Every structure is written in structure tokens, then in C-alpha cells.
Prior knowledge:
By secondary structure, this protein is of the alpha/beta class. It has a single domain (36-354), classed as Aldolase class I (TIM Barrel, Alpha-Beta Barrel), CATH 3.20.20.70. Helices cover 45% and strands 11% of the residues. It is built from 15 helices and eleven strands. It has helices spanning 4-10, 15-22, 26-43, 83-95, 111-127, 143-151, 166-172, 181-194, 211-224, 252-270, 279-284, 288-294, 307-310, 326-339, 353-359, and strands at 47-57, 100-105, 133-137, 156-158, 197-200, 203-204, 228-229, 232-233, 274-275, 299-300, 343-344. Strands 1, 2, 3, 4, 5, 7, 9, 10 and 11 form a nine-stranded parallel β-sheet that branches. A two-stranded parallel sheet has the order 6-8. Helix 2 (15-22) crosses helix 9 (211-224), helix 3 crosses helix 10 and helix 4 (83-95) runs parallel beside helix 5 (111-127). The protein is globular and about 55 Å long. Iron/sulfur cluster is lined by residues 60, 62, 64, 67, 69-70, 106-107, 139.
Amino acid sequence: MPSIAYLLKNRIFNQETLVHLLEADEQDTRLIFAESAAIRQKYVGNKVYLRGLIELSNICDKDCLYCGIRKSNHKCDRYVVTDDEIARAIRYAVETKMGSVVIQSGELQTNNFVERMNKLLAMIREIGKGELGVTLSCGEQTEETYRHWFNLGATRYLLRIESSNEALYYKIHPKNEKHDFNVRLNALRVLKSVGYQTGTGVMIGLPFQTLNDLASDLLFMRDMDIDMCGMGPYIEHEDTPLYEYRETLMPFEQRLTLSMKMIALLRIIMKDVNIASTTALQALDKNGRVQALKIGANVMMPNITPGLYRNNYSLYLNKPGMDEEAEDSVRNLERQVSEAGCEVGYGQRGDAVHFSRRTKT
Ligand code: SF4
């Protein structure tokens, strides 16, 4: 196998070389990070775009085996943020010039949920005067719903595949109609065809996962020609079935390093996509998000969900920011952005450069 320096210089990225890059030792990892930082600077600049995150509800109809808010976790207190609270959060995002918001929710396909989203999107458009970018992360929906929400002003959609290896997917999800790998894959294709800036992502350090799987995930994102990515380390939650495999997991430090390598490699391979510096990175290391920004991430999502609900959107253990109010969350992110030598893109939507390029006729 050629050296890491040679692979980077000649841009030789395939299944085999990506595994080799993921295995890089400390010295070679520095080369990877230097390359990803340079590519980030060249193709997307040093701006970091903020998306005010609103965790609308933790009520979910699905049972993903890793998730703390899965339907079968009866220890989880369920909540729904009220319209007034959402309106306040949106106003806050506008006043603080965040440029965009993300509405994330447990997955529901009921008429009530779809209609509530319709109403909220209209409200966001009104408060944001049509200038606020809107990303949705509300799971699998029908094409008609995706289209309707797009027409109501949502222009980005994040639907994480979690693993692009079908066999591994079914080790972390129940194998049934509600958790169908091909339905999820198809949903990603539909989102693109509707016109969304489409994002996906994976968990890193899952039980049963190999470096081969992660290399395939990178190629999957490249071949799917996604516009945005949110990925981070798998962090176990004690009230989930996957917790029984906790002894088989790699230590947190390794999961963090591997996550950084994945972010850097995605930046190197896809150059101009938007990559989020996720909360899960921060859960493993207080400098996690700063590190990710330094090596290629360019999006951050300050949590502006009213503090009272934060503890209940507990996807994994020790999720950071559970006791923060929106103001603290924003101040912390600002500090992290400047520590990373970047600048906040206040008032800018920060659409993915990749999207403009791929949709240019
Ligand atoms: S990962 Fe998403 S869809 Fe799965 S149980 Fe959790 S909230 Fe629901």
C-alpha cells in the first residue's frame, strides 16, 4: 500500500485505501488533518454557520436499538414543545442572527404531526420573513409530505442512514416494516429529487462495526452525492438494547479520533459539502467540537429548545448542554468557533456550496 502522503497527494480513495487512511497512526493522522483543513479553507472558507436547533418532541414511533427516546423506552418522559415556545425560539434565532434553524423530532407519520409541521413551517416563514433557512430532521415521510414541507419553506433535510451496510443496519435496528433499510435509502433519493439540500450521516464506533464499514460509509456518501453530513461517535444509552454490547466498544478516546478521521476524510473526498460539528463529539471531549471545526466541519447547531425539555431529548448518555439555556448554548459555541480560528457566519443561511454546484444547469 502506498504511503498516506501519496494517497492524499494523488487523491486515491477507494475501499482499500480508505481503510488504510482510517488506520493511520498519529503522525499520518496529522497529514490527513492538515489536508482536510486546507481543503475546507479552499472550498468552503473559514465561516461556521449556525443552525438553531429545536428538539420539537421526543415522541417517536420507532424503536432504533441505540436510541434513548425509542418507543419502547418507558422510562423516558415524553414532551412536545408548544407553539408559543417554538415562536419564542424562532424569534431568538432571528434576533441573534443565526441564519437558520433546525426542527428535529422523533419520527411520526401521523396526520396530526404532518399538520403541526405545516403550521410550524408557516409560522417560521412569517417570523423569519422568509429569510431564515430551515432544515428538517423529522425522519421518513411520504413524498407528498416532503414536497409539501419543501413548498412551505424547508430547504434542507437531514436523514441519517446511521450505517450504509444493510447487515449492520439490521443489527442496530429491529428488522421489520418500520425500520426498512431500503425505505430509508429511497427516502434519501426522494428528498434529493424533491429539491432539498440533502444530508445524511452515520454513527462511528458502533458494536459490530468495522473499518471496512466506515470506509463504505464514506463511499456511500460520495456516491449518494449528499450535500450535508452530520456524523459522530456512537455513545451508548443504558436504557437501550444495544447497551448489552458496551463491553465490546472501543474506548471513548478512540471513538473520538475515529470520528475526527471520518470528518476529515469526508471533507477531503467531497470538498464542498456542509459538515456539522455534532454534539456527540463534545460529549466525549470538551474540545471535541473545536477539534472538528479545525479539521473540516463548518456547521454548528446551538440548542435553542427551551431548557425545561432538554433533559428529555436524551438520545445517548451524558449529552452535553442538557442544563444550558439557549443563551449559554450560543455563547459556548461562539467561544468554540473562535478557538478553532473560524468566524461565525452571522445572518447567513450557509447553504451547502456542493448543492449549488450539483444543481447548476
Ligand atoms: S433514532 Fe430517531 S427514529 Fe430512531 S428511535 Fe430515536 S428518535 Fe426515533
